[in-house]
User: Fold this.
Amino acid sequence: MSGTREAIARARRLVVKVGSSALTTAGSGLDVARLDALVDAIAERVSRDAQIVLVSSGAIGAGLAPLSLGKRPRDLATQQAAASVGQLQLAHAYAESFGRYSLTVGQVLLTSDDVVRRSHYRNAQRTFSRLLALGAVPVVNENDTVATEEIRFGDNDRLAALVAHLIGADALVLLSDVDGLYDGDPRDGATRKLTEVLSESDVDGISVGMSSSGLGTGGMVSKLAAARTAAGAGIPVLLAAASEASAALTSASPGTAFAPADTRLSARRFWLGYAADTTGTLRLDDGAVTAVVRRRRSLLAAGITGVAGEFQAGDVVDLVDTKDRPVARGVVAFDATELPELIGRSSHELPEEQRREVVHADDLVPLRR
Ligand SMILES: Nc1ncnc2c1ncn2[C@@H]1O[C@H](COP(=O)(O)OP(=O)(O)O)[C@@H](O)[C@H]1O
Ligand SMILES: N[C@@H](CCC(=O)OP(=O)(O)O)C(=O)O
Assistant:
């Protein structure tokens, strides 16, 4: 067995995320038998002294049938109405199901502000920590009923990766209706399952598509992004079918395993690299990309070829290469309006008060490639 799978099998604190397509069926809503099978697997792992936070989708899917809605609505207001009804059903079903094992569940509904803003991040951290210390199983979902387009995570895969870091998880298990990551959309015919993803180059160029069930949100695109986020922050990830939950949570043998990066990012650097919202973009020339990504240097004005967005000193911005591919994120030390006349110029050409790093190395997180 690979080291990654061993680490997942041994993990003491895990985030398990289950998708809508694994819990709900178009037309008939929540599938309690499948939910019970998932709870059986989680309860078994909890009985072996693990702490589990469950991120469960399915509120919108579960709310459709009771509201006589045929398929997943496109407009936000009807999605929110369905989520309002479905979340109650979901919470009730989990409370009943975990109750079979005398386990207590706590519901945690989050909006992106709760994770993206540093002060709220701490607050959420305290809530999870207390719930786990009290022996409860936190069941998390996005607070769909109040989340507007602007403040939505939009997909629970990303939410699960952020929660995994937030609670200091040793593993993230993503359970879906598909049994792993394929090198192309399995609906398109002959494709091969990847069993181990050791580095970014293993997934470069593979084709990932959207949901096939019409119930899920992000499809494989969001699952792969979430797996990269968590693995990049040092957390091993398993992507498997929900129908294999028992094997996934006991031996970590099925599905696709994503090896974690060697170092775990601090909370601040994780927030900077993955959770914070960015308000602008700096385009770097090749030399600057090498300096900031490989040599971990500060970004100087001389290596910047373009500026976009409306940001102020202290905001988080994306750093992109000459092909507009994101290579890092960092806290910018100038306002957007100040930069156009500085970029491309070396420090000795600049007035003394502007001779400082545009993004200091301590405030810069290279993205894993
Ligand atoms: N390369 C790929 N490998 C595996 N699945 C893929 C790939 N590309 C697209 N998919 C689709 O993504 C779906 C899973 O996404 P989704 O329905 O959003 O799941 P969930 O509801 O669990 O979040 C699969 O059923 C599959 O059809
Ligand atoms: N929060 C939404 C699910 C959003 C989502 O990401 O769904 P999925 O792709 O099935 O994990 C709900 O409960 O319906």
Remarks:
- The chain has 13 helices and 17 strands.
